[in-house]
Amino acid sequence: MLPSDFWGRIVFILEEYGASFAGGIWTTMIIAVISTAIGCIIGFAIGIIQTIPCDREETPVKWGLLSVIKFILTAYVEIFRGTPMMVQAMFIYYGSAMVFNINMGMWTAAFFIVSINTGAYMAETVRGGILSIDPGQTEGAMAIGMNHFQTMINVILPQALRNIMPQIGNNLIINIKDTSVLSVIGVMELFYTTKGIAGAYYTYFEAFTITMVFYFIMTFICSRILRFMESKMDGPDNYELVQTDALVMGEGMHTYNPKDKNSYTNVDYKAHKTGNFNENQREGM
Amino acid sequence: MENIIKVSHLQKFFGKNQVLKDVDFKVDEGDVTTIIGASGSGKSTLLRCINLLEKPSGGEILFHGKPITGKGFDHCGYRAKVGMCFQSFNLFNNMTVLENCMTGPVKVLKKSREKAKEKALFYLKKVGMDPYINAKPMQLSGGQKQRVAIARALAMEPEVLLFDEPTSALDPQMVGEVLSVMRQLAKEGLTMIIVTHEMAFARDVSTHVVYMADGVICEEGTPEDIFEHPKKEKTVEFLKRFNER
Ligand SMILES: Nc1ncnc2c1ncn2[C@@H]1O[C@H](COP(=O)(O)OP(=O)(O)O)[C@@H](O)[C@H]1O
Ligand SMILES: [Mg+2]
Questions:
Q1: How far is the CA of A160 from the centre of ligand 1 (A)?
Q2: Calpha distance B102→B111 (Å, rounded)
Q3: Is the shortest distance between the CB of B45 and ligand 1 below 6 Å?
Q4: Pairing with A245, which of A204, A208, B35, B186 sits 20 to 30 Å away (CA)?
């Protein structure tokens, strides 16, 4: 029996279809979260490739190869950013089945479409993130002998990642909402689920009120979690001074000996102990 | 004896602008070479060419007698042996002080983490920054950052260490702490090439002083030659201007 008042109907729908809602929420979240993660990996990979330094005269073959790859990547980014995801979903899911006889399966198609879309957006975001890092960081890494890949993985990308965390959060939230377009290929995410529920008793207002609230809760919680992760990445605001006498291995003081890299010799370097620098030691000119 | 670094007829163009015109000089083991000269005379460009951060346009740079500018030369392996400290420190902002000093030995030299940590602590202690191993670069003063940058370079145990105006970005009261570390390194026999405007320091620690003007080496010699008995008009002029400041 359908109650006659608004709240009554809300409760009724929740009791009757709670499990369906839960299923829809789960589907939406799993697709949004995993696809955002895969999209980020795609974005970072493209970011690394787009910024590989290459000299046209010095290594013409490598340069030519890179140019082709960069062209393909740019085309990918522009095409997927420039067309609606709903159209892509139809094109890839039904199109691939009809023309190439590839039956990707609904789930594979869902993850594929959202990931590849996020990747296209993230590629540009990551590129911007990399460009925003002080070139001095790269020079510092090069000066200790790191190659491009090591520099990227250890120095540049961690900083770029921190800087683009807000955009990653943005992408996640967009993906939570935009998985609703996957209903066109029959994915039972939250929107498609709600449509079915609403149609059963003709309770569009109540059912979609509930769904609005669910979407909001999902996006809000995700944005808070990402904020928390950002502050975790920033590390503590203060540091503790450490007494390292206990940390440094045995036999007292060592000094640099260019003749023999593996042996240390004992010298006095009292003047170099912390705090013993004379502030007035400033050199005259 | 074979020179560690031998630069001959080095040229560098930025577009049509020739910044280095036929520069010749050499560095032997244990040498402390200071490069002085006015802003824009090409000092940084010379150091950056030696470290291959800039590609020389002409001439030759030999490292232990082998040219470093040829095709297929291992830039990374070379830079691991020829360290560099920058005016702007360039510490890795995403790492703590300790990680800054460990990452090179671990990732580039493929040392174990224990060995790398031991080395890092040793050199951080040498520059007096061992209590700060857990700090991030952002949390340090300029002088402290530069001392960590020196420890980071030393942790690679380079054969030659290049310094590009290591104290120019520092507040006056922090200059002393960095120079005193560098003095100690000089005393211990580390081979260094230092671009600096600290003339008293240059006079004290150098075995060799190079005065650059307009992309050429105008005059070079012992600190005594350059500071007490400069021969060239330009050198006299430059030093006079400096003393008046
Ligand atoms: N990347 C660059 N592109 C173009 N010109 C440059 C570049 N780096 C330096 N220069 C020019 O080269 C000249 C020498 O610069 P630099 O080596 O930095 O001098 P110094 O370190 O002695 O002050 C300057 O005129 C500068 O404008
Ligand atoms: Mg300079």
A1: 28
A2: 9
A3: yes
A4: B186
Contacts of A159 in chain B (CB under 8 A): 93-94
Give the pLDDT confidence of A263-272 residue by residue, as tens digits: 333 333 333 3
pLDDT in tens, B145-203: 999 999 999 999 999 999 999 999 999 889 999 999 999 999 999 999 999 999 999 99
Which residue is listed with tokens 């420890």? B151
Q: Is residue B122 scored above 90 in pLDDT? A: yes
Other C-beta atoms closer than 10 Å to the C-beta of B221 total: 16
B239 Cβ partners below 8 Å, 6+ apart? B199, B226, B227, B230
The whole-number average pLDDT for the span B56-71 is: 90
Q: Is A262 on the interface with B (CB under 8 A)?
A: no
Contact B143, B178 (CB under 8 A): yes
Residues with Cβ within 8 Å of B142's Cβ and at least 6 positions away in sequence, in order, are B89, B169, B170, B171, B174
- Three-state DSSP state, B214: coil
Instruction: Give the span between the Cα atoms of B212 and B33, in whole angstroms.
Output: 13
pTM of the model: 0.82
Report helix, strand or coil for A230.
Answer: helix
- Which residues in chain A have their CB less than 8 angstroms from residue B191's CB? 258
CA distance B86 to B137: 14
Max Cα-Cα span within chain A: 94
Could you identify the residue written with the tokens 């440094």? A248
Instruction: State how far the alpha carbon of A89 is from the alpha carbons of A86, A112, A124, A133, A220, in Å.
Output: 5, 9, 22, 36, 27
> Residue A27 is inside which H or E element, if any?
helix A6-50
Rounded to whole angstroms, how far apart are CA atoms B79 and B47? 12
